[in-house]
Amino acid sequence: MAEGVFTRAEFETRVARMQNQMAAAGQDALLLTTPADVFYVTGFLTRFWESPARPWYILVPASGAPIAVIPAIGAELMGRSWITDMRTWDAPNPTDDGVSLLCDAICEQVPTHGALGIPMGLETHLRMPLADYVACTAKIAPRRIVDATDTVQRTREIKSAAEIAKIKASCAIADRAFDRVATFAQKGRPLDAVFRDFQIALLSEGADWVSYVAGGAGQGGYGDVISPASSRALQDGDILMLDTGAVRDGYFCDFDRNFAIGTPDDAARRAYDVAYQATDAALSALHPGMTAAELHHVMCQSILSQGAQPGGGRLGHGLGITLTEWPSLTPHDHTPLRAGMVLTLEPGVEIAPGKIMVHEENIVLTAAGAQLLSRRAPPALPEIHR
Amino acid sequence: MAEGVFTRAEFETRVARMQNQMAAAGQDALLLTTPADVFYVTGFLTRFWESPARPWYILVPASGAPIAVIPAIGAELMGRSWITDMRTWDAPNPTDDGVSLLCDAICEQVPTHGALGIPMGLETHLRMPLADYVACTAKIAPRRIVDATDTVQRTREIKSAAEIAKIKASCAIADRAFDRVATFAQKGRPLDAVFRDFQIALLSEGADWVSYVAGGAGQGGYGDVISPASSRALQDGDILMLDTGAVRDGYFCDFDRNFAIGTPDDAARRAYDVAYQATDAALSALHPGMTAAELHHVMCQSILSQGAQPGGGRLGHGLGITLTEWPSLTPHDHTPLRAGMVLTLEPGVEIAPGKIMVHEENIVLTAAGAQLLSRRAPPALPEIHR
User: Fold this and answer.
1) Residues of chain B scoring pLDDT < 70
2) What is this structure's pTM?
3) A328 close to A292: Cβ distance less than 8 angstroms
4) Res A2 pLDDT > 70
5) What homologous superfamily does CATH list for B161-384?
6) I need a labelling partner for B145 at 20 to 30 A (CA). Which of A271, B91, B187, B386 fits?
7) Which of A131, A210, A223 sits opposite B147 (nearest CB)?
C-alpha cells in the first residue's frame, strides 16, 4: 500500500465540500469519530481501529483543515497526513480519556451559542463512550448538538475521480480472484476451506486486507448470505455463492458470484437468469435524478415480470470506504441518485422457501448512466465439473 | 469453522454470571449492541458487522435467555443459536429502524421505575444511531439508564475453559505462521508484499479470517506499530516486526515477532534482550490478586533496571473476542488480575528517539500463575540471511 494514497488537494476539496454543507445547515463544527469518516477527511488509514480501547476524535471547523484529538499512539501515523493541528493524550486514561482536550477544541471552534454537528441518523453511530459523550455535552453547554448525518452523507456519497479509481482497483482484484474459484471449489471440498482459499486468492491478487467474505452453498440454492462457512463439503447439485468486500488503499469492492457444483437444476438456472435480467434492467434504467426507491422498483418489477419473487433483503446500496454505505435500494429510501455515486446492484430471487439466488455488481453513476466497476457476471450460471 | 462452536451450557453459564452482576448492581435488564457483546451471550458470529447499515439489539433480562431484536436478514443465522425470543424488522427502515420493537422489549423487561444497564464507560461505545438512542430513552421513561460497563467487563474478563482453548488455537495458528516468515520476508521484498504473504500464511494455517496485521520495518528499529505497510523494500540492517490478530471461531490471538534482516546491530540485539527479560519478569511475577498497574510496574522496572527506557504505549492488555480488551497495563489501571483472565504482555523498549522494539506474548492467568498461550519467542533476535 502506498503511503499517502491521495493528494492534499483531494482532502482540501472533500473538506471544503463538507464545510459548504455545514454552512448551509448552520453547523459551526463537525465531530467525526468513526474509521470511515476519519479516513475520509484526514487520510488516516490503519487496522488499529480493530482495538476498541481508544476513541479518536476529528473536529472539522467551519473553514480550514480538521483538528485531530487522538491517542498518542497514533501521532506518528497522523503526522504523515495533511493535518497539522494535532492534540494527543496517553490513552486509555480512566480519569480523562481525551474528553478535556476534545471539549477545549470544540469550545474554540463553536461559538457559545453555536451548534456542533454530529452524525446521529440512520447508518451512523458515535464511536466514543456514551458516558464521555454525556459529560462532553454538559461541558460545552450552552453550545447545541445537532444532527449532521446529511452533512456527511451528501458529501461522502459523491465520489471523486480518485475515489472511483480506488474502488475500481478493488473490484478488479475481486474479478481476478473470482476467476480462480474453479481451482479450489470442487465437489468434496469443505466450504470453510473454500472461504480460506478465496481470501488467499484476494490477497494474492493485490488486496491489502479482506474485511468481508460471506456466502453460502446448498442443494439448488442457499439459505442466507451473511453466515460464516460451515465445514460441510460441496456436493453435486450445490449452488455456491461467494461475496467479498476486499480492501485496497482503504476502499472496498462488494460483489458476489454464483457457481454450480456439477450440473445445476432448471430452477437454479432460471433464477440465475432472472437475477441477471434484473441487473440488466437496472443498468439500462439508471440515470441521475431517479431515487433509490425508483431503482428498487425497476429491479423488483423485472423479477416479478419474469414470474419470480424477490428474495434476500434490500436490492443494493452505496459503496466506498465501508462495505455498505447509504442509500438503500428499498421502497422506503427516497434519496436522489446523483452522478458520482457508487452503488451495488444486488437483485435476489427466491428459488423455493428458504432458498435464494443473489447477484451483485458494482457501478458508478455518471451523467450518461451506469458504468460497471466490476466485470459483468457471465450470462449463464458457471458450472464447476471436477 | 464449525457451526455452534460452544455448547448451550456455556452460554447459560455466561448469561447467569452476567445476571448475577446485574442483580448486584440493581440492573433489571442489559442492552448490548456491539459485535463482541452480542457474540458473547448468543453465539451469533458473522462478518456482516462490517456493514454499518443496521443496528442489532440484544436484551439480557434479569433471568432467562437473551431476547434478540434484530434485522430480518439475521434471522436465519440467529435462529441456529440458543435464542428463541427473536423479533425482527426489515432494516434499514428510515422511519423506524427497530426502535419501537426495542422499546417494547425494554418496557416488558424493566419495571416502570427500574433500571436498564448499558455499557457506557472506557473501551465501550453504543453501536446504534445516537438519535435513535435519544428517542428510545424518551419512550421508555421513567425507566432509568445506568452504566453497565462493570457488569459486562467483570463477566467477560474471566474466560471459560472453552474460551481459553479457542484463544490457544488462534495463538497456535499465529505460531505456525510466524515460523514461515523467513520464507517470504527476505531482503529486497517490499513490506506490503510481506504483509500480504503473512496474512496468506495465517489463513493457510487455519485462521478463519485475519482481522489485524500491523508491524513495521526500519534500520535498527521501527517507528510505530499501527501503520499499514509501505512499499519500501526490506534492507540489510532492518528490524522487521509483524503483529497479528488472527481469528478462529470468533476468538483472537494478539502477539508479534521481531526479525533482523541480515545481521542486527548491537543496539537492536540489546533492546531485544531487554524486552525479553521484561517479559520473563512479568511471567514470574504474575499471580491473581495483583493489579494491572502492579504488573505494568514489574515490566517497567525490569526495563529501567536494565538501563533502558520503555517505549510504545501500554505494556499489555486483555484479549479474547476482540483484539484488545480491558484491563490496560498502565500505571492508571487498578483492575485486580484474576484467575481466568487472558492477557497480552507487551513490553516496549526505546532504542533511539523514534525507534522502538516491542515484544508480545499471550497468557492466561491461573491460580498457579501465568501460562503461555503463544509459544515463547526465541531468546535471541532471529536473523534472516538470504
Assistant:
1) 1-4
2) 0.97
3) yes
4) no
5) Creatinase/methionine aminopeptidase superfamily (3.90.230.10)
6) B91
7) A131
